[in-house]
Amino acid sequence: MLHHRAFTISAFWTLALLYLGSVVHATESSLACPDWPTCFGTMMPEMTGGVFWEHLHRLVAGGLVLMFGLSTWLAKTATPDQPWIFRACLAGLGLLVIQSIFGGLTVIYRLPDLISTTHLGLAFLFLALVTVLASVTGSPTKFESPLGEAAGRITILASAGAALIFVQSLIGGLVRHMDAGMACPDVPLCLGEFVPPLVNSMITLHFTHRLIGILAALMIIGLSLWIIRVSAPKPLRLLGLLAAALVVTQVGLGFVSVVTSLAVIPVSFHTLIAAGLLATLVRLATLAQLSPRPISSTSGIRVG
């Protein structure tokens, strides 16, 4: 199933691209190439200093477009009976093109907050889409028994969790691009208080990011425990446990990022774990939706 493998590679490629994008910002390399789409007027600049990270990010982004283009072609030939997959691929290609344009605008207009955050948000949307495609085109997941009503609930809760992580990531992008990462220089308190004086937009934004992070952690850990309690099939239990582990790691990385005054490694992994968490929840929701349902005892035609 070459198209499934291509989608899976595209998903991991997107995770690597998101990580590189975070490294670019954390190392203050976003404007190391002052022009776009070239870098100092060439496609092959000297790969040193900030240029290395910024241009590598561009090259990896270009590679993702080619990889997903191949995925689209493979899917079109392999799934003629599922035309929605090809349409989803075209939407994905559109997202990549628009995201590339926004990437160029961030350079041309010197990192405006909203454009830079939109660039990040489009990457997360594409990751969610390619995760769905990788999940639905793989070999059918084997379940020990039908899920019943729990399947719909898992799908809804995991989707809600993914949506919350997406919103949280957008707020995190604003925190990053508005240089509000150290608006609360202490953890777990903020300016020495549980609820700091919200006297400016940077403190308010940073504190909101923390609050939603705690809410997301509680929700996802609760979902994981509930999946175990209802004895969901092993693949779903593992995804639930992975989501819980990732969200705990994410909260920890948020703390470390503040303690280390936004050091490159924890800040960059903070973005990567957020993306991984989104992909995990999307896959959990998709597999639950695809799970077999029990056959109703009342189904069939009554004779006589």
Concise account of the structure shown:
The protein is mainly alpha-helical.
List keywords for this structure.
304 residues; 0% strand; mainly alpha; single chain; 8 helices
Fold and architecture overview:
The chain has 304 residues and is an all-alpha fold. It contains 8 helices and no strands. It is flat and about 50 Å long. Residues 296-304 have low confidence and may be disordered.
Secondary-structure element order, N to C: HHHHHHHH
Catalogue the unreliable spans.
296-304
The fraction of residues in strands falls at under 5%
Q: Give the terminus-to-terminus CA distance.
A: 48 Å
Main β-sheet, in a few words? none
Radius of gyration: 21 Å
Number of strands: 0
- Indicate the structural class: mainly alpha
Give the fraction of residues assigned to helices.
over 70%
Number of H- or I-type helical stretches: 8
- Give the mean pLDDT: 92
Sequence-ordered SSE layout with sheet pairings:
Blueprint: H1 2-26, H2 49-78, H3 83-108, H4 113-136, H5 149-177, H6 201-229, H7 234-259, H8 264-290
